[in-house]
Amino acid sequence: LGPMKLEPKPPKASVSRKRRRSLKVEKVKPEELENTVSKEKTETEKTIAKMFDVLKINKKVRLENLVLNRISFAQTVENLFALSFLVKDGRVVITLDDNGSHHVSPRNAPAASLITSRKVVYSHFIFRFDFNDWK
């Protein structure tokens, strides 16, 4: 490409231009459409609602019967995911009976004032579930 020249170059003169305001000023007000914002439920929200409806009808359900889909592992995982939201929100409780079976029961969620005052404490658990367990 050749040697570089180290001679200083004179700075370019900057030209500032003022913006002209248009003489014809129109106020544009777009027409508002009614019911433009439609909130559609996601698949997870639909699954959560279905699961809670089942729990309202059957007050005590075995965990396996509620979550397990023997045909689809993916659906089983989605059911477990939906159940985790219900447990996190305090809408269901998982109990262990004398035989070692887990049972899921619906319950009323605690009031927001009880949560903020820390009278209600959430407890967490780890649920190990993989493809081999599903088989």
UniProtKB/TrEMBL annotation:
Name of the protein in question: Non-structural maintenance of chromosomes element 4
Quaternary structure, from the entry: Component of the SMC5-SMC6 complex.
Subcellular location: Nucleus
InterPro entries reported in the protein's UniProt record: Nse4/EID, Nse4_C
GO biological process terms, semicolon-separated: DNA recombination; DNA repair
Role summary: Component of the SMC5-SMC6 complex, that promotes sister chromatid alignment after DNA damage and facilitates double-stranded DNA breaks (DSBs) repair via homologous recombination between sister chromatids.
One Gene Ontology term, aspect cellular component: nucleus
Location of the Non-structural maintenance of chromosome element 4 C-terminal domain: 61-135
Principal place of residence: nucleus
Pfam families tied to this protein: Nse4_C (PF08743)
Family designation: Belongs to the NSE4 family.
Disordered: annotated segments: 1-40
Record's compositionally biased regions (Basic and acidic residues): 1-10, 23-40
Keywords carried by this UniProt record: DNA damage, DNA recombination, DNA repair, Nucleus
